[in-house]
Amino acid sequence: MYPNGLILALCLSVCLEFTSGAHFTLMHHAKCLQGHELTMLVGFSLKECVTECALRASCQSVSYRRNIALCVLHDEIFTSEAEVSTSGETCVGYVFVSVRLGPQLMTSHPGPCSSSPCPPGTRCMPFQDTFTCEFKECPSSTTTFVQGGGILGNLNSIGNFRLVKCDPKFTLFGVARQECLPTGNWSGKATCSMDCGPPPVVPDGFLGIGFIETFTTEILKMTVYNSSQLAMIAVFLEGSYIEYACNNGYQMRENNFTECVNGLWIGDPTCEVPVSPVSPTFAENMGNCNALVKSYAYSTGGCVDTCITFADTFQGIPGKKLNFLDQETIHTSNFNTCKLACLERTAFKCSSFEISDSLCNLAIENANQGGYFRDDSGYTYYQRDCLK
């Protein structure tokens, strides 16, 4: 039996001899890091493997398999000896080397690339006393996630190919066979999803706002505001979400949205004629505009689309709030405090507010100025009346 110090000295001697002069601060035999691969290189010595890592600012460590000269570059590192012991995989025939800890190289690397001057994703190419930064690989295919499918192929150097394959019941949208281009990007884009087809048409209603997950020349998430934009989209993928608003004289029954789930639109937005006006409990006056598609005007005694001069009274409707139009939020549940805050604002013209048991949201717009209702039982929406 050898003393532990002698074993360590023999190990370091062999390691240094094996790497032809490379000085590694942290080397672990029969260990490797699973996942977090930047790229894999074949036919490289350990010294060359470490050098390739040192030339890439995003590379932190390498796992090297001697018998087949396989070099795996990682963008992660074990941060301590304890982590190597508890989290490091036991990999027969491998050597794990910590090459960089943050921006600091843990191994000597002379030359113009010693300070890692190139941005992540590129390799520093030394030339005499200067250098160039070139892409040598694309983002690792082994860490790229495709919902509803996966990626076949684990090589990602320039010129390598990978294949996107979808699980059963999912459809491929885009290009299945992709090449790693000299720009460091994969050619084409692809996703695996289900197409729900056109969303339902709501009688006496119209599209309010939505997020449409679709596919054109690339994977795209677009915000839609009206039916003319909606008609231009041919594919509606998983996750698409649409909210509706009702025409004048109608109100939404229950939920006002539909969502693409498992190839089907779920939700049943329905516009109907109000059965009865809102209870006076939720209104300061009864101007017959309680559906709040228009504003009550004192000068005409009727309902108007626009307001020139605002009054200091409001009409309310329970279980409603505006979508995405909060100008200011106040932490209060007191109606009078919220109302007074709306009337006192001079930085913007407060034309509506909504209040819950903890929040008061002030808005610069109201329901007939482009805002759309969201059903929310926790809020009561108040719309400001007009003098004229």
Automatic annotation (TrEMBL):
Keyword terms, alphabetized: Disulfide bond, Glycoprotein, Repeat, Signal, Sushi
CDD domains, per database record: CCP
InterPro entries, sorted: Compl-Cell_Adhes-Reg, Pan_app, Sushi/SCR/CCP_sf, Sushi_SCR_CCP_dom
The UniProt record lists the keyword Zinc: no
Domain Apple: 15-91, 307-386
Domain Sushi span(s) in chain numbering: 194-273
Signal peptide as annotated in the record: 1-21
Stored SMART domains: CCP, PAN_AP
Top-level taxon: Eukaryota
Name this protein carries in UniProt: Sushi domain-containing protein
Species in which this protein is naturally found: Dreissena polymorpha (Zebra mussel)
